[in-house]
Every structure is written in C-alpha cells, then in structure tokens.
C-alpha cells in the first residue's frame, strides 16, 4: 500500500488546482467539561440536500499536571431534515495535544497523518439521522510546555468530500498552574506554555507559525483566517481524501 503525505497551511486566501485533495487541533472526565462549542468550524463541501453537519468540542477541558492526561468529548451533529448516509469523523491532534484513543474508532497510520499533526483517528458512521448527534470519548495527553490544537473534519464515507471542519482549534490558558493538581484549558485560547521550573513563556505568534511548504501534488483551494486550515495530498489510498 502506498502512503500519502499531507501539507498544512494557514492564511487568508490560497488558490490552486489538483486531482486529489483532502481537508482535514485520563484523569479529567466529561463531567468537568463546559458546554459544547463549534468554535473554529466552517462548512466546506456542499452536503446532500437536507443534511447539515457540524461538530462540537467542550469549551473547557482539564489537564492532570502529573500525568498530562486529559479527556475530550468530540460530537458530530446532523442539524438538517434528512439522514446523512455514510459519513466519517476524523479526530486529529497537533503540537502538544496528542490523541491517544477514540472509543470505537481506528487509528490513522503514521505515514497517512496530515503534516504537522502527531496523531489521528477515523470514526466511521453508517448513518446519522436528522436532528441526531453522536459523541466520542477522546483520550489525549497535553504537554503544557507547548501549544496544542485539535481538528475535527466530517467527511463523506468514501472521504471524497469534507462537509465540515472544526479547527485545528487550540486549547490553552494564559494563566498556567504548574503547581496545581490540574490546569484548566479553554477552547479557542492559545496556550501560554509552562517552561521548566514552573516559569512561563509567551506563545509563538505571527502568521508563519503554522505554515509549512506546499506538497507537490497540489495545494488547498481556500483558507479563511486563523480558523481555516487546508491540507493537500497526493491521491490517497483508502477512504481518506483531502479537500481544500
């Protein structure tokens, strides 16, 4: 089986053409998490008539300072009037946030992960009825010495279209608690990393911090500000496929 490499870009506007594209950032429990939020999400390809897919992430998570473990609930929701048919949810970690397991889902092979990501899982869904949602328990670790992001794309079952993508969106805090049992992190907040010895340092800023070179097979069609991130890839093998 051949492998594919995927490139990550952030920015204001990028255009290109290509043949195969894909769009793709414990101790704490779900009870500790705040209400779900679609912050950092964007509609991508047009979904079938009557289907409206979105995702939700907790507005707050908590990281155990001794084990670095955290738990995240990832939810996909069909707010439309028609059943979705076969779809798949991807859960992908970046930087200091590493996805260790997603209940009921399969790990994405290392050579198939998006560039810049460190972990990912694919969750196939046979059908999501109109007005229904499906939630997944995500076990992860968070290195508080780094920034951390998570990304939730929702694709057609064959991976040829991406209907919705949330992220890569950061979890973080501007007030680290290295000496506390746990550190609360907020969705949509860049983390202020904890340096050795309990001191803190400012996070890296600027438009270039998430920009990586474009792959030879193509580039993303559209990126919309800091909330947009597009991945380009050579033609994938299997159900996953990129779109921009």
Write the layout of secondary structure elements.
Elements (H helix, E strand, L loop, with lengths): L5 E6 L24 E2 L3 E3 L9 E6 L1 E5 L4 E10 L8 E9 L1 E6 L3 E2 L9 E9 L7 E10 L5 E9 L5 E11 L9 E6 L37 E9 L11
Antiparallel strand pairs: 1-15, 2-4, 3-13, 4-6, 5-14, 6-11, 7-10, 7-12, 8-11, 9-10, 12-13, 13-14
Overall description:
The chain has no helices and 15 strands. The protein has 244 residues and is mainly β. The strands form 3 sheets. Strands 3, 5, 7, 9, 10, 12, 13 and 14 form an 8-stranded antiparallel β-sheet that branches. A hairpin with a 5-residue loop joins strand 12 and strand 13. The protein is elongated, with a radius of gyration of 17 Å.
Keywords:
244 residues; 15 strands; disordered C terminus
How is this structure best summarized?
Helix content is 0%, strand content 42%. The chain has no helices and 15 strands.
What is the count of DSSP helices, taking H or I runs of 4+ residues?
0
Query: SSE string, helix = H, strand = E?
Result: EEEEEEEEEEEEEEE
Distance between the termini: 24 Å
Choose one word for the global shape.
elongated
Looking at how many chains there are and whether they match, the oligomeric state comes to single chain
| Rg (CA only) | 17 Å
Number of strands: 15
Structural class: mainly beta
Mean residue pLDDT? 75
Largest sheet: 8 strands, antiparallel
Beta fraction of the residues? 35-45%
- Helix percent reads under 10%
Identify low-pLDDT runs: 1-31, 198-244
């Amino acid at each position: 089986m051949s492998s594919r490499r995927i490139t990550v870009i952030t920015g204001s506007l990028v255009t290109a053409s290509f043949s195969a594209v894909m769009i793709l950032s414990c101790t704490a429990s779900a009870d500790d998490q705040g209400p779900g939020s679609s912050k950092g999400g964007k509609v991508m390809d047009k979904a079938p008539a009557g289907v409206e897919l979105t995702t939700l992430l907790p507005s707050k998570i908590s990281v155990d300072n001794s084990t670095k473990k955290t738990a995240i609930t990832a939810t996909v929701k069909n707010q439309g009037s028609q059943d979705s048919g076969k779809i798949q949810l991807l859960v992908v970690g970046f930087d200091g946030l590493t996805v260790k397991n997603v209940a009921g889902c399969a790990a994405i092979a290392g050579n198939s992960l998006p560039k810049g990501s460190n972990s990912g899982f694919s969750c196939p869904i046979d059908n999501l009825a109109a007005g229904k949602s499906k939630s997944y328990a995500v076990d992860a670790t968070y290195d508080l010495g780094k920034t951390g992001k998570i990304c939730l794309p929702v694709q057609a079952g064959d991976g040829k279209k991406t209907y919705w993508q949330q992220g890569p969106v950061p979890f973080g805090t501007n007030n680290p608690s290295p000496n506390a049992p746990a550190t609360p992190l907020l969705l949509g907040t860049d983390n202020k990393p904890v340096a050795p010895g309990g001191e803190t340092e400012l996070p890296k800023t600027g438009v270039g911090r998430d920009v990586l070179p474009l792959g030879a097979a193509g580039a993303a069609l559209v990126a919309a500000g800091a909330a947009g991130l597009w991945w380009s890839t050579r033609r994938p093998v299997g159900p996953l496929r990129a779109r921009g």
